[in-house]
Design brief:
- By secondary structure, the protein is an alpha/beta fold.
- Among the domains are: 4-79 and 219-265, ATPase, nucleotide binding domain (Nucleotidyltransferase, domain 5, 2-Layer Sandwich); 89-214, Rossmann fold (3-Layer(aba) Sandwich), CATH 3.40.50; 482-549, no CATH class.
- It is 29% helix and 26% strand.
- It has 15 helices and 25 strands.
- The chain has a seven-stranded mixed β-sheet with strand order 12-11-21-20-13-14-17, with helices on both faces.
- Strand 5, helix 3 and strand 6 form a beta-alpha-beta unit.
- Mean pLDDT is 78; it is low at 282-316, 412-424 and 550-556.
- It comes from Trichoderma aggressivum f. europaeum.
- Residues 303-414 form the Hydantoinase A/oxoprolinase domain.
- InterPro entries: ATPase_NBD, Hydant_A_N, Hydantoinase_A, Oxoprolinase-like.
- One of its GO terms (molecular function) is hydrolase activity.
Length: 556
Amino acid sequence: MSLYRISVDIGGTNTDAAIIDIKALTSPNRGVLATHKAPTTPDITTGIEEAIKTVLGSSAIDQSRVLSVTIGTTHFINTLVEADARRLDRVVAVRLCGPFTHQIPPFSGFPVGLRHILDGGVFYLDGGLVMDGRQITELNEQQIRQAAMDITAAGVKTVALVGIFSPLDHDEIQEERCKEIMLETVPNLKVVCSYDIGPIGVLERENATILNASILRTGHRVKKGFQRAMKRLNLGCPLYLSQNDGTLIDIEAASDLPIKTFAIGPTNSMTGAAFLASIGQGHGASNSVHGTTNGMSSKDTSPHGTITNADSSSCEQAQILVVGIGGTTTDVCALLPSGFPRQAPGFLEIAGVRTAFSMPEVVSIGLGGGSTVTLDAESVSVGPASVGHFIQKRAKVFGGSTLTATDVVVAAGKAALGDPSLVHDIPRTGIDQMKVSAASATVLLVGGGALLVTDELAGVEKCIQPIYQWAANAIGAAIGKVSGEVDTVEILEGKDEKAIIDAACKKATDQAVEKGAVREDVKIAEVNKMPLQYMSKVTILIQWSKGFVPFVATQD
């Protein structure tokens, strides 16, 4: 019997929804039963509710067979980027560090405007670890209680708690104990522990923890709105949010860790594109992918031909890039052979703040279906300004007065209005930045603005538009997986390296199982290990040992 998953992906311009039958993923239509696209509403909860109603109505499924609902939203990152003081809370940074790290205080790398809104003060307390896991100093309970009272006296209710090398604290868990003491002293404090947020790297982890703490109030408000919508829709299944790395987080955890959902827009599009094109699926889906081929003879494929199993296999050996064109931006990302987006190396900036956690490497360009076209006597420019979700009111093709990229494409060949090359040159920039060699790449083209690419792209062997490409973001959310993640430093002296790595993999697997995975279905997607320099003993860092599972909350 069929089992279903519903997803909604909310972008700055459009809201997309989809229903998939997880028992039919290898069918020609990839299990997709219904999709829906509508302009994003100012009240995102209303937009979600209407989108789900629409796909439920068009698919006519039995709602009791719905396993889960997944929502992808940029609401949280927009709150930070807009630096709206009404939606952000002041945060006190409490660093467990003993006598160390005082030279670079918290908030040091924040933009001036954002720091003015968020900086609620700093406390340096006893605690923290050195790189091999030994304590710098023990926690001082009286010191912690006094700090909690001082924070309350200053009128601040939110705390970012950061211990030096806290991701290595597997035994005492200083941050958790410090949080307990603070809440015993002042029960209404909201405390975010950094070991829940990011990996090793104190400043970047601290920055991310502060940002997360500042939007806790927004996270809980959004959670309640989503839950009310689920109740009105009579859906009693689990509710998840998409995470930055393409996996799922349940709504309760997401409301406490909203920063883990910041980059879901590009991620959902990338994973959806890979799924629809059978990249990293271990099987091809005949007749499931349609597209055009650049730079190939007509005998290889026709403009509306079928990408066969052989094509899918060859794709996995080539450079695979996903180009997602929305209403405001074009996002370009490279896919790994597993079908997951290539992760960004090093550090990432969010709202001008340097952070470090698992996110895909994405190049964003100011080109979308709603990008405005500006004409003058000597030049034509496209974007980065966009009419966004007002395209159906403002674009000329819909009777408006603003010339957009969509108008140019619609008119191409029918009237002397603009030059499509002015538009399709722009995605080339992002494609070139994401390629790792000069060899030609295969591009999976998705998004509602994909019609902007009307011609060949330089350096691209194939340009494939999968079926349901306009809803790839929603489909990517629907096929999301739960995961486990380990980030640790291990001293190898007197130990077996393979046994240490196996233990890390088991821990990642256990985490995935705790979140609803079936142990037999979990696979380790990635293990990164590296030697650490300047240590007196042979030491390795193990990062991002991830266990994924395809689907959760199974029913008979």
